[in-house]
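Handout, section B. The chain below has 293 residues.
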Amino acid sequence: MRQVHRLACRGHTEVVEADLSGYFDSIPHAELMSSVARRVSDRHVLALLKQWLVAPVAQDDGRGGWRRTTRAKDEKRGIPQGAPISPLLSNLYMRRFVLGWKVLGHERRLRASVVNYADDLVICCRGSAAAALVTLREMMTRLGLEVNEAKTGISRLPADSVTFLGYTIGRCYSTQTGRAYIGTRPSKKSIQRVMRTVSELTARRTTLLEAETQVVRLNRVLVGWGNYFCLGPVSKAYSTVDAHTRHRLRWWLCAKHKWPGRGTSQYPDESLYDTLGLVHLSPRTRNFPWAKA
């Protein structure tokens, strides 16, 4: 994210937001094993990885049961999602594209830099996004992969915004001067997702838990989310998540102890944060060890 932000501030304001159709299911075995063989010479390890690629996979049949599929073996492509080795293999194959972009001279010719995390990628360009998108399609076809045209397009900062790895990159405004600048902030979907998680954790079916145990569960989510979403102006996002968490925890405590009302008098902020130990994301009180890591 810092790399994308740095490129955008240096004039790479045309961004190709790329999405691949079924990346894990599309990786060709022969080309993948060639990439592995350049780094691993032990034939026993190579044989084990090949067996892993073609092993049958159990899939949900949509009717409460499971069905066995050998599609990867039959089609000689695809790696099993959820397997411990799959993220490493997927990164290794995507490296073909990232290195190829540089070796073939596209980065220099188009003044376009690829930034990726696994199969999530953007191409930051200086006025050459259209040509970069055409080159992207050609290279992915050669790699046996398919660009998802419905989710792939060109955005121009700061008029447009770009969503990448849970962040939104676009026009932000200084709270002190009101000046506009290109910045990063947690995306709306990321905020909504963590709020849904908090709501699920505080569902009525969990009221048999002890209050301390419930707070530990909430803190685990808040700490993880806050550690990841710590770039750019995050105070509004933190305040939104904090307010939702307080509301849901008060509702949960009232449901547990059969209190009427919203619980604001029975459980003020001091009770939630100081007594129960709920984590406070607000930057004004980010004095926890996890916030300094």
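Note. Residues 172 and 181 are 5 Å apart (CA to CA). Compare this with the example in section A.
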